[in-house]
Design brief:
Layout lengths: L6 E11 L6 E13 L14 H8 L9 E8 L6 H7 L15 H4 L2 H7 L19 H5 L2
Antiparallel strand pairs: 1-2, 1-3
Length: 142
């Protein structure tokens, strides 16, 4: 079977309504990139820098309640149907992997905590979107 060189190209921006100022606030601006078939893309940036918003865009998921997305996505030079884009791009959110009501020690074994260099987090709740716990960076350290 012949391998195709599919390319996902995007150019976009995302704005959300700021909770405090009640005005539109840009979370991602002047964004563009290319992902080739068979490539693994791993955005690496500090906490709260828009990685999940970018991944939601690429997987064609809702970025945030009330988010406005401007721009376009091209797959092999054409605008794909929504389901086609979802079929070629996806990711697993870190919150899907860990149970928010458990501590890190209960979620992971001590050996893994030591290997990841986070034994001090062992008795801290993992947390959820509603209940604060260890930071997203600590959830994915290692």
């Amino acid at each position: 079977m012949k391998e195709t060189a599919s390319r996902l190209k995007y150019s976009c921006a995302v704005t959300v309504k700021d909770r405090n100022a009640k005005a539109q606030r840009a979370i991602l601006t002047d964004l563009s990139g290319v992902a080739r078939a068979g490539e693994l893309v791993a955005p690496m940036r500090p906490s709260r820098s828009g990685k999940t918003t970018l991944l939601n865009l690429l997987a064609h998921r809702k970025s945030a309640v009330g988010a406005q997305t401007l721009g376009k996505f091209l797959l092999d030079g054409t605008v794909p149907e929504e389901q086609v884009l979802r079929d070629v791009s996806s990711f697993v959110e870190q919150e899907d992997v860990l149970v928010g009501s458990l501590t890190a020690r209960w979620s992971l074994v001590d050996t893994l905590l030591a290997a990841f260099g986070v034994p001090s987090c062992a008795d801290t709740l993992v947390g959820t979107l509603i209940r604060k716990g260890i930071s997203g960076g600590r959830k994915s350290d290692g």
